[in-house]
Design goal:
single chain; mainly alpha; two-stranded antiparallel ribbon; 3 helices; about 65% helix; about 5% strand; elongated
């Protein structure tokens, strides 16, 4: 196929080919730039790629700077000590959470008991005061039952989310 100097279709085809070639080169260049920025570098050695992230402070470090401990990877000695403290803190939080669950359970049972007691006393007579006792009893009982249901739902969700 011969391209004539006055043929506009051939000029359009050449323009499209040149434009696509330029776009392809720009795309390849942007991929190279992005891949250089996507790989994390060591916090202490900017020329080395990071292989782990410190569990205590979150810094990315290379193989030489990373320190494997029984509690995970750390970037230096004081972070390893901090990491041991973090695990102790998590154990304390778990114990506190168990206490909160127990108190929520007992609180909802107390509310149900008080509600039933108010309802019982509301049937001892007639009048506005006894109607108020019935409303209070129904409110306490409803609140206790709802709190107990919410606690059970939270308990079941926490059981399902635990890693094996």
């Amino acid at each position: 196929m011969c391209i004539a100097p006055g043929n506009t279709l051939s000029h359009a085809i050449i323009f499209v080919i040149i434009a696509l070639t330029i776009l392809l080169l720009l795309f390849q260049l942007s991929i190279q730039i992005l891949t250089k920025k996507l790989f994390m570098k060591c916090y202490n050695h900017s020329e080395r790629e990071a292989v782990v992230i410190c569990r205590a402070c979150g810094k990315a470090v290379c193989q030489e700077c990373g320190l494997e401990t029984e509690n995970g990877f750390a970037c230096q000695r004081n972070c390893a000590k901090t990491l041991a403290g973090i695990n102790e803190h998590y154990a304390g939080q778990a114990a506190h959470l168990r206490n909160i669950k127990r108190m929520n359970f007992l609180g909802s049972l107390f509310s149900i008991g008080m509600g039933l007691l108010f309802i019982y006393f509301s049937f001892m007579g007639y009048g506005v005061v006894y109607d108020l006792l019935l409303l209070l009893g129904a409110g306490f009982t409803f609140y206790g039952v709802m709190a107990q249901l919410v606690n059970m739902i939270i308990f079941l969700k926490s059981k399902n989310n635990k890693p094996d």
